[in-house]
């Protein structure tokens, strides 16, 4: 239960602060999310997909 609360706290902190200042990243951080219109998306530190480059 403590780990769940800590993970939720990290995600909330990640939403409020910039990614490089947030606490621990989600496990998927940096992994491929999708490719749409020749744009590559990866998971950001706090979870959502963000633009990373071209694919």
Provide a descriptive summary of the structure in words.
It is a single chain. The protein has 55 residues and is of the alpha+beta class. The chain is built from one helix and three strands, in the order αβββ. It has one helix spanning 2-16; strands at residues 32-36, 39-43, 49-54. It has a three-stranded antiparallel sheet with strand order 1-2-3, with no helix packed on it. A hairpin with a 2-residue loop joins strand 1 and strand 2 (39-43). The longest helix is centred in the first third of the chain and has 15 residues, at 2-16. The protein is elongated, with a radius of gyration of 13 Å. The chain starts with a helix and ends with a strand.
Overall outline: elongated
Please give the number of β-strands. 3
Overall pLDDT confidence: 76
The percent of residues in helical segments reads 25-40%
What's a concise summary of this model?
With 55 residues, the protein is of the alpha+beta class.
